[in-house]
Write a structure and sequence with these properties.
Length: about 450
């Protein structure tokens, strides 16, 4: 997906993504749940400038150059002239982005358009009536309706309604494996759960930990539950929870997934000290790259991490496959979990809705998609496949694109979907489950009670 120049889905350069990936991606939800959202301010919304100028807030990282070029194109376009609106991009440093957005959205200087993470990151704004529901707009406009991979377009939804348009690259969770280790042990990457368990047994016999896991950070453990629940019961299981039904934690698929986690832990699939190993200090990637662990379930940025820290391993021995099927499960094996992309949303108080919508259409253009590819990202546009030959690693980029393009459903990372307050509490319960401090039934009961 990304070169060593690549960028995170929240906007940090690769080097700092490995330091604080979840803080970046979770920041959007962290401060939205605090006060200030219902302040009405005065005037008609927007930046406070003239009627023809709309303000767009964007997360200020190196990838913002793509949005800057998009603004320049729009401001010179016939659409800008027709709608009588131009965009002024306001680049906000990453650490300041969410608090500044929250404050601005409760004031007369609210942006007309703003960058976000979808799901839980925009739920407070939707509940406060501060977002334009784009569902009908998208469905009635072929550029927006057909311009994006459907599973990505819908991943940032709230209760089945569109409030955003994709505007950055995709970040699915992928099962990475060490080609050298697999070749030496005469193993094949697992396509079924039984094959995965069989590989685990053979790897342990050879003195190799099956999976690297940065358990000290908690969020890498979440990826296992996300895929297990999806493969066992399908995306509807978590969708129920995301929509506010806490009893969904008691779904048989959730119970079974928790039991499978316990079995993996008890069987030594992650080694004996994974709870003290972190991803954020590159310990888990190092365990994987140095052959002490054969596989690593991680977001697609793992390629960039390895290329930056262990370039020879990344170029020669890093392999990747989809998460395996689980026998008897009802979830589609093509489904994906992770961070689909980032989104542009429109403030309900914008001064010029037509101009804002016209601006969002540029994200579906080939020129926009090519800029993402050149930056090391994999676009979520339906026209991106033909552009990937120019990606830093075409094979890897095409694998990701096909994985997501063929997925009937792309489930947004649970912590992002739930928002930071619930997501943090959920991380704690997941950490207890993986550490053996709570049983599967205790885990389920605790999550049912999260508020």
């Amino acid at each position: 997906m990304e070169s060593n120049r690549g960028l995170s889905n929240g906007g940090r350069p690769v080097e700092s993504r490995t330091v604080s990936r979840r803080w970046v991606l979770g920041a959007g939800a962290a401060t939205l749940l605090t006060t200030g959202l219902t302040a009405c301010g005065s005037g008609s919304g927007g930046s406070g400038g003239g009627k023809g100028e709309l303000t767009a807030f964007v997360y200020g990282d190196n990838s913002v150059k793509i949005q800057e070029a998009s603004v320049d194109r729009f401001n010179k376009s016939a659409a800008a002239k027709k709608t009588g609106g131009k965009i002024k991009l306001q680049r906000i440093p990453g650490s300041d982005y969410s608090p500044k957005l929250r404050t601005a959205m409760g004031s007369p200087s609210a942006p007309d358009v703003f960058f976000n993470w979808g799901g839980g990151s925009i739920k407070p704004y939707e509940e406060a009536g501060k977002l334009i529901d784009l569902t009908d707009v998208i469905e009635n406009d072929p550029v927006l309706r057909d311009g994006f991979i459907p599973s990505v377009l819908s991943s940032g939804d709230l209760k089945g309604r569109h409030y955003g348009v994709p505007m950055r690259g995709m970040q699915p969770v992928i099962l990475f494996y060490n080609k050298s280790v697999f070749a030496e042990q005469k193993l094949q990457p697992p396509t079924t759960w039984d094959q995965l368990l069989d590989n685990n047994a053979k790897l342990k016999k050879a003195g190799i930990t099956p999976f690297a896991l940065g358990g000290a950070d908690l969020w890498p453990e979440l990826m296992w539950l996300e895929y297990l629940v999806d493969r066992i019961g399908g995306p509807e299981v978590f969708r129920r929870i995301k929509d506010g039904d806490a009893e969904g934690w008691g779904d048989p698929a959730m119970v079974k997934a928790a039991e499978m986690v316990k079995e993996l832990v008890d069987d030594g699939a992650f080694g004996s000290n994974f709870t003290s190993v972190a991803y954020t200090n590159d310990s888990a990637p190092a365990v994987f790259a140095k052959g002490r662990a054969a596989m690593h379930l991680m977001g697609s940025w793992e390629y960039s991490t390895q290329l930056g820290k262990f370039p020879e391993f990344a170029r020669k021995d890093l392999g990747w496959v989809a998460f395996p099927a689980i026998e008897g499960g009802t979830g589609d094996v093509r489904n994906v979990v992770g961070n689909p992309t980032n989104y542009w949303s429109i403030n309900a108080r914008t001064k010029n809705k037509d101009a804002a919508i016209a601006f969002l259409k540029d994200c579906a253009s080939e020129e926009y998609a090519q800029a993402l590819v050149d930056n090391g990202d994999v676009p979520t546009t339906s026209n991106a496949a033909k552009l990937l030959d120019s990606a830093p690693n075409p094979e890897y980029a095409k694998f990701q694109y096909d994985l997501v393009a063929k997925a009937p459903d792309f489930t947004l990372s649970w912590d992002q979907a739930l928002g930071d307050e619930l997501g943090t509490k959920m991380h704690t319960e997941i950490g207890k489950l993986f550490a053996g401090k709570s049983s599967p039934s205790q885990f389920v009961a605790a999550c049912k009670g999260l508020k």
